[in-house]
């Protein structure tokens, strides 16, 4: 039971708490601060944005929904981990190992792919053709990690002087580069499906 000095300001289930709070923030922004919030930065849960948008706090003034890059890249890692869990006991096309076996899609490898995915978005949001640039950068990291010396796929990697691609850096300095820590083709093909799903959504 609540005591007499209870300062609870929300009554309802926890799922509606964020939407309720967002509505109040937008509802009183003009009277309290003389401001109109025209952008809404969310964490992937569309309920709060939908509630604010339906309320139309500023009449015909539209509110743009922004996506948090941190949440988007986390979603990449989550889907890859869910994929690995789903295929835990299923051997891949080489009939030797499963997706979560040593040298396949390890958690450390997922962490790298997740980090590269976030950087691909952050580093290309200001370009003129940002959507295509982001997609190209995402696929560049995938191909960069997925293949070996016998089958190179660095066509999408950036070729500028400070490129993150060790292979392209080695070419500019005439050094011999040997690929390491790459995903076996069986694991790469499986991860490819997950990458395509995320990019297209």
Automatic annotation (TrEMBL):
Residues 3-165 form the Mutator-like transposase domain. InterPro entries: Mutator_transp_dom. This is Mutator-like transposase domain-containing protein. The gene is g.5631.
